[in-house]
Each structure stands twice: as C-alpha cells, then as structure tokens.
Hints:
five-stranded parallel beta sheet; alpha/beta; 221 residues
Amino acid sequence: MLKHFVIFGPPGSGKGTQAKRLVKRFGLEYIGTGDLMRQEANSDTPLGKKIKEILEGVGGKLLDDQTANEMVDDVLRDIEPDQSIIFDGYPRTMNQVEYLEGFIETNKIKLYVVNLKVDDANIIKRTTTRRICENCKRIFQDPEQLKISKCLECGGKLIARTDDKVEVVKNRLKIYNEQTKPLLSYYRQNKELVEIDGNPPQDEVFDEIESKVENILSRND
C-alpha cells in the first residue's frame, strides 16, 4: 500500500527543513503550503494579495480552508498516483483533515504523521534569528552567530521573512496551540503518529526522523 506522510510541528519547529531532507533521502514528493503561499504572494492576483496580507499581518491568521484545500488539490493533480508524498503545513484544521481523508480513502493510501515537539521559547528564538536566501530560498539558522553574511549555496542575500517577526510568531504559536495542535489527538487515535523531540540540533532530529520513516517504508502494511 502506498504511504504518505504529514509532518507536524509549531511554526519554526524546522518541519519544512526536515521534510525537504526526507524528500532527498527517500524520493518523496513535497507539498508545502507555506512555500505555495509565498509563491502566490509574489503574484499580483487577488489570491496573491490576500495571502500577502496574511503573511505580513500581525495576527498570524491561517489561510481559509477552501483556499488551502484548493491549493493542495491543484498540486495533487500533477503528482503521479504511485508517488509517496510528504505534506508540510497541511492539514491545519479539522476541515482540512476531512478533505485530506477523502483523498486518502479514495486512493487507498496509508497516512503516517510525524510530529516535532519543540518548546515555545526555542521556537521564538529560532524564528526570529533565522534568515532565508532571497534567491534559492535556503534557510540559515542564526547566520550572524555563525558569521555567515551570504548564502552558502548561491551567494544570495540573506533576509528575514515577514512572518518571522516576534509579534507574528507569538500569534502564530497561539493559533497553532488553539486550532492545529488539537488535530494531534485525532491522529493519535486514528492514524500512526510518530513523536519526535525537535529541540536538539537539526542533524540529530533528522537522524531520528530518518530512522522512523525508513522503518515505516520498509514495512509491508
């Protein structure tokens, strides 16, 4: 049976970075709603303007369910039916869970959820000190401490994301704890949930995730 993954965790937990490392390691297809939103925000479309307001606003509010579901559905149409997928930043509400469940059941797929547990204080420190390359979008954690002034991949300028401001991060954490974190109870009861301590250094966290995912993919279930 084909296996898909959802990577969960609060904003700034490193789930996007870890998901992309899993893509390279296991050949998974990546669907990251954060990346999709930022791409759309750079356009001059009504949706792009709407998303830009969400990303830059201090409320840190979520994209509405219908738009989020439509964005994911558009990407799913272009993915081969026998390709395993990892979802990052989706689902975030029970309505999105139900939408994804419909896709999972229709296509006879087994879903596994990887949850990164990170302390709020660590989240705030990580998000407010990280920078992203404006060209290749690689993320660097606290480049000032590492004395990095340019992207090590392409030499691009390192910039702070608009949604990494302190006030935005705190509000995003509040929304996550109120609206998204409760989804873990559902997945804990209905799916296979893998809990990962996301506080250690990135490489240590990835080693643990890699081991768990490799075990899941090797099983005949």
